UniProtKB/TrEMBL annotation:
Protein species of origin: Noctiluca scintillans (Sea sparkle)
InterPro entries per the UniProt record, alphabetical: DEAD/DEAH_box_helicase_dom, Helicase_ATP-bd, Helicase_C-like, P-loop_NTPase, RNA-helicase_DEAD-box_CS
Alphabetized UniProt keyword annotations: ATP-binding, Helicase, Hydrolase, Nucleotide-binding
One protein family per Pfam: Helicase_C
EC number: 3.6.4.13
Domain Helicase ATP-binding: 1-126
Catalytic class of the enzyme: hydrolase
Name of the protein in its database record: RNA helicase
Residue ranges constituting the Helicase C-terminal domain according to the UniProt record: 152-226
Single GO molecular function: hydrolase activity
Keyword ATP-binding: yes
């Protein structure tokens, strides 16, 4: 997975299906290595990882991929956009060639097609959900504002206050769950009805937040882009 947040979200979903009978471990950067290292050494049937931290463990002999049967690349296009291709290729080179490889991608650019050909022993089977034709909704007006990093938050707050004052509902995306929570708190501090929604919230809480947004009780919904 390309990000820590997505790796954690995947592990949460995996555990809903596996319970305690199958051990799942997620490894990612930004946190101490010791707990993840201990989990890997004690044995795991499913490992969810960001490329950098997994490669770190492999190079330091913490674990190996000799018995991996299934390789899943989630958000393959995004991992390429983030520059992870060299790490991914190093990881894949250590997995047995008779594995089954599955790649999930929102788009199908030439770079992802090349990876699919390189990582699959046979011609890959492509499954498309929905349409490959990307088109814009003509009823949506798009605006792009160029601002300096130091001025971004003030400009955003000024804009959101003008919109929220008219009772409009607004969906705001952030890169991380922590940023979503922080922005929602700041909006609430400024007397703007806002709530955050992401994978760390309980399902009951997420449902309540969505219902409040639908009814207009909450004007601003802050969500992660994943």
């Amino acid at each position: 997975a390309p990000t820590r947040e997505l790796a954690m979200q995947i592990q949460t979903e995996v555990e809903k299906f596996t319970g305690s009978s199958i051990r799942a471990t997620s490894v990612f950067g930004g946190v101490p290595r010791h707990g993840q290292q201990a989990s890997l050494r004690s044995g795991s049937e499913i490992v969810i990882a960001t490329p950098g931290r997994l490669l770190d463990f492999l190079e330091n002999g913490v674990t190996n991929l000799k018995r991996v049967t299934y390789l899943v690349l989630d958000e393959a296009d995004r991992m390429l956009d983030m520059g992870f291709e060299p790490q991914i290729r190093k990881i894949v080179s250590q997995i047995r060639p008779d594995r089954q490889t599955l790649m999930w991608s929102a788009t199908w650019p030439k770079e992802v097609q090349r990876l699919a050909r390189d990582f699959c022993r046979e011609d890959p089977v492509k499954l498309t959900i929905g349409s490959e034709e990307l088109s814009l909704n003509p009823s949506v007006t798009q605006e792009l504002h160029f601002v300096a990093q130091y001025d971004k938050r003030d400009r955003f707050m000024s804009w959101i206050k003008s919109v929220a004052g008219d009772g409009e509902r607004v969906l705001v995306f952030t890169e991380t769950k922590r940023a979503a929570d922080a922005l929602a708190r700041e909006l609430q501090y400024n007397q703007i009805s806002a709530a955050a929604i992401h994978g760390d919230k309980e399902q009951r809480q997420r449902d309540r937040t969505l219902n409040e947004f639908r009814r207009g009780t909450t004007n601003i919904l802050v969500a992660t882009d994943v």
